[in-house]
Each structure stands twice: as C-alpha cells, then as structure tokens.
Amino acid sequence: MTDSTFNLTHHIRSIPDWPKKGVIFRDISSLLEDRLVFRKTIDLFVHRYFTTRIDAVVGIDARGFIIGAPLAYELNAGFIPVRKKGKLPGTTISESYSLEYGEAEVEIQTDWLKRGDRVILIDDLIATGGTMLAAASLLQQLGVEIVEAAAIIDLPDLGGSRKLKEAGITVHAFCEFEGD
Question: Tell me, what is one Gene Ontology molecular-function annotation carried by this entry (predicted)?
Fold first, then answer.
C-alpha cells in the first residue's frame, strides 16, 4: 500500500438507520480490523503532530481512546481520557452536551493536566460537535491549550467542525462524508 493509493474512505463502512432511523453511522471498525490500514491511520496522525510540542493526547470515550493511546505513545506524550460521566475515580469535572441522537455528559480527572499544557483532542469523528465542544470546555476550564481537535472523519453537513472553529478551536480531519 502506498500513500498515493491510500484512501481512508474506502475502509469506513456506512451503516444506515443506526443507532436510530435517519442516522448514517460511519463505522471505523472495518478500518481498525485491517492491521495495515490501522497502522497507516495512526501514522497519518503521528506525521501530522510529530514536530509539534504536545504534552498529552486527550482521547474522547470510547473510539478516541483507540486512536489517542497509540498516538500518545508515538509522540512520547501522556494520554488523558475524557469519559462518560461516572466512569472516572477521583476528582473530576463534567460537561453536558447534545449529540445527533441524544444527550450525554462527559468528564475528565483534574489531577493530570496543568495550566498551559498543550494537547491534541482526538475522537474518531466530528458530527454535531457536541462531544468535542464539551471536552474542549473541560480542557479550557483546566487552562489547557488545545493545539488542535482532530478526527479521522468529519461530517460537515452536521456542522460540528464549523461550531468548533467558531469556538476558536483549530480542527483537522483526514476525510469527510457529506449527505447520504
């Protein structure tokens, strides 16, 4: 596989009407199952941030963990999880948000990141932006600098990347899906 023939969109399944009718779920499981495609995907992130000073990669529950942990390892940075409410021990702060098919709340432990730390915020995709905006709010409450919010997939029709940019957050995704 060479860079000129690698196209992430060919490795992402589109599953209609899941988790509810009218939603097209972009499934990265097919991307993860192929060891060469998974490696190439992580390498895309590594090459993007390799020369950037990063103190930690912040991965959003749960698929952001899959991308974030190996990326943190390769960048010699810490890995900090943003989890669903009630899943982290110790002192946490939380933020509620809306997503394209419901409501949720995420939290982060307050012990690990310190004011001025530079982080990459990672998830598998950007849809309505609710999860990333909530995670970004938590990081901003901690005084952390978000170098970039990054994902494998952007769904620009849902407006999430636009909302993140309007909030002053730099955004990057390696591929996008629009419409059906």
Answer: AMP binding
From the candidates 63, 95, 107, 176, which is the catalytic residue?
Answer: 63
Which pLDDT score is estimated for 1? 36
Tell me the one-letter amino acid at 51: T
For residue 63, indicate whether it is catalytic.
yes
- For the stretch 19-31, pLDDT in tens is 889 888 899 999 9
Decide if 158 contacts 135 (C-beta within 8 A).
no
Which candidate in 26, 39, 53, 100 is catalytic? 100
Q: What pTM was computed for the model?
A: 0.92
Is 35 tagged catalytic? no
User: Using an 8 Å Cβ cutoff, are 121 and 149 in contact?
Assistant: yes
Reported in sequence order, the residue ranges of the chain that DSSP labels E, i.e. its strands, are 13-16, 24-27, 56-60, 78-84, 92-99, 102-109, 118-126, 145-154, 171-176
Domains of the chain, with CATH numbers?
Answer: 41-176 (3.40.50.2020)
